[in-house]
Write a structure and sequence with these properties.
The complex is a heterodimer of chains A (303) and B (302). With 303 residues, chain A is α/β, with parallel strands linked by helices. In chain A, 40% of the residues lie in helices and 13% in strands. Chain A is built from twelve helices and ten strands. In chain A, strand 1, helix 7 and strand 2 form a beta-alpha-beta unit. In chain B, helix 1 packs across helix 3, helix 2 runs antiparallel to helix 3 and helix 2 runs antiparallel to helix 5. Classes of the chains: A alpha/beta (303), B alpha/beta (302). At the A-B interface, helix 3 and helix 12 of A face helix 4, helix 5, strand 10 and helix 13 of B.
């Protein structure tokens, strides 16, 4: 609306964000984008209020010792705030559209000739990454099919169209084949604040096998997947879908006697990951906390 | 004057057994600052250094040392902004009061961050007596979670048996006191380990009551999460690489250090736990991974 105080604007956005995340909790990117917008508003407000760029928005020991009073309360209306925020959001949109290309551009640094790369399921980011490297290098890809939805099949078809030598294998063979693999490159659904992943079911197995063989595990994911949540209740991120995929309803006799689960996601702890490749470059999992503080404001972690 | 300082410090610890020793030290130092009759910053810093040394001779814990260092840093930062001494002193006193007010809320902030990590039906292992851990468990009880706690009895002063178990029973939490030696035995039954800290060092490791390192090693071996809860004023500028690197003045009680006995015959009261064994640290600055701790310290001291 017209020059309404920024505090009201932020409350509005926060309420909408809560509604959207409650509708589908597993789609964490929705919440992440709402938090990015809130941070943009805080920054633009701060800039208009006359605060210097360096002044830290985060809680820190330094701020505890030097602050003279309470934190600001966004009460002063600034008519130009709306235009500034809209411009900043447009910049963000441009950045978002370019993420897959930014990640793919880094492919040549990580993939070398005659390497054997393993991946699991279907990830658009990994597909772009491998295709970009295939333009200049010759390598092989082994795709784990990722039962029960078997999206690995689609990945293999797309990769082979670019003349990349692709092999599909079942998830059970991951450990057996791992000794021949040079690198594991995967995508993910969400990156958590401690550097852990929420990825398709089967990724944890892949990560453990890679750790056992000391094979580097590289995660290609854009920064909008970074979510400021910690894995507190281990079951909270789980999403279960119809067990039809695991055991079809035609097997009615058996179905009556057993419980069948079909979880969609897996939790992968940060110790198993070697590198995150995102649109801002490559980072170690222990550095994720820093990236988070650049993207989001601590008061927005809980929407 | 120095004897008044010691008296203020002791009085605070007597009147409020719940207050953290670092906070009591900072409050006493602020009182000392108010009474200081010096005219220069340099003079003020020198008399404060003497005051901190005196306090360390009363209570040799890491927390008092880190509280003192923080106060000195606070003085330096404020004095850089104002060149006029009397104005500077006014601002220091005002900011000091604000800081103490904020810091008194830190335990509640930590409890709010940490209690979601305790699931319903969890079995928690904790070590010795920590008021922050107690506050976290209180918050978990308030949010209607049911859990049980194993406490180590924590020799040589039996702090776990005497103080922690008693306080937990008052909150109606099922408690089992175990021998320090039984940690390896009990670890398979435990869901998470939650300890406090006397000091958090630059590498992200912690200094805490003797026995903490053992618990951390057992937890790592059995893949159990090891959580540390500590307020931010416990961050200290040390970087020990092993147990020997921790200065002797923290390892032993102030009275033992004064008698000048052969320290190799004495049992240390604290040990150092390395950051590779710690899963997460809960502080009033937020939930931090051990690598984030050094960032916080750099932001403050450099």
């Amino acid at each position: 609306g017209p020059s309404s105080p920024s505090g009201e604007l932020m409350d509005l956005i926060r309420t909408e964000g809560q509604r959207m995340t409650a509708a589908q909790p597993s789609e964490t990117t929705v919440g992440n984008m709402v938090r990015r917008v809130l941070k943009v508003i805080r920054e633009e407000y701060g800039r208009l209020h006359g605060r210097s760029e360096e002044s830290d928005q985060q809680e820190s020991l330094h701020k505890l010792l030097t602050s003279g009073g309470l934190s600001e309360d966004f009460r002063t209306p600034y008519p130009s705030l709306r235009a500034n925020v809209i411009e900043a959001i447009n910049e963000m949109l441009i950045e978002l559209e370019g993420t897959t290309d930014n990640i793919a551009m880094q492919a040549l640094e990580h993939i070398h000739s005659n390497e054997v790369i393993m991946t699991i399921g279907y990830s658009r980011t990994v597909e772009a990454f491998l295709k970009e490297a295939a333009r200049k290098r010759k390598f092989q890809v082994i795709v784990a099919e990722c039962a029960p939805f078997c999206q690995g099949h689609e990945m293999a078809v797309r990769l082979s169209k670019e003349n990349i030598e692709t092999t599909v294998m079942s998830d059970a063979a991951i450990f057996a084949v791992m000794s021949r693999v040079n690198k594991v490159i995967i995508g993910t659904k969400t990156i958590l604040a401690n550097g852990a992943l929420i990825a398709v079911s089967g990724t944890h197995t892949l990560a453990l096998a890679a750790k056992h063989h000391s094979t580097p595990l590289i995660v290609c994911a854009p920064m909008f997947k970074l979510s400021p949540q910690f894995p507190n209740e281990e079951d909270s991120f789980h999403k279960f879908v119809s067990p039809q995929e695991v055991l079809p309803f035609t097997e009615g006799e058996i179905l009556a006697k057993i419980n069948v689960h079909c979880p969609v996601f897996d939790y992968v702890p940060p110790e198993l990951i070697t590198l995150f490749i995102s649109n801002i470059g490559g980072n170690a999992p222990s550095y994720i906390y820093r990236l988070m503080s650049e993207l989001y404001h601590p008061d927005d972690y809980e929407l | 004057c120095l004897s008044d300082l010691i008296e203020t410090f002791r009085a605070q610890l007597r009147d409020d057994p719940d207050v953290a020793s670092a906070v009591a030290a900072i409050r006493a130092l602020l009182g000392f600052l108010k009474q200081d009759r010096g005219e220069t910053i340099q003079g003020l810093r020198n008399s404060l250094r003497d005051a901190i040394d005196t306090l360390s001779r009363v209570d040799s814990s890491v927390a008092v040392s880190s509280g003192g260092e923080l106060f000195l840093r606070f003085i330096s930062l404020t004095s850089l902004e104002y060149s006029d001494y009397s104005k500077c002193k006014e601002i220091m006193i005002e900011r000091g009061e604000i800081f103490l007010r904020k810091v008194s809320l830190s335990r509640n902030k930590i409890a709010k961050l940490c209690h979601p990590f305790i699931r319903d039906g969890a079995r928690i292992l904790t070590h010795a007596y920590s008021r922050v851990v107690l506050r976290v468990l209180e918050a978990a009880v308030e949010s209607k979670k049911r859990f049980s706690v194993y406490v180590t009895e924590s020799q040589p002063d039996q702090a776990g048996q005497q103080k922690m178990a008693r306080a937990l029973r008052k909150l109606n939490i099922p408690v089992t006191v175990i021998l320090d030696a039984a940690v390896g035995y009990i670890m398979e039954k435990v869901d998470l380990v939650l300890v406090g800290a006397e000091g958090v060092v630059e590498s992200g490791g912690i200094i805490n009551k003797i026995g903490t390192n053992q618990i951390a090693v057992c937890a790592k071996a059995q893949n159990k999460p090891f959580y540390v809860v500590a307020e931010s004023f416990k961050f200290v500028r040390l970087f020990p690489l092993n147990q020997q690197d921790v200065p002797d003045r923290f390892k032993y009680k102030a009275d033992t250090l004064k008698t000048g006995q052969n320290l190799t015959e004495e049992h240390p009261w604290i040990d150092y736990t390395s950051p590779s064994l710690i899963t997460l640290l809960f502080t009033d600055l937020g939930v931090l991974t051990p690598s984030a701790v050094s960032d916080e310290l750099i932001k403050l001291y450099l």
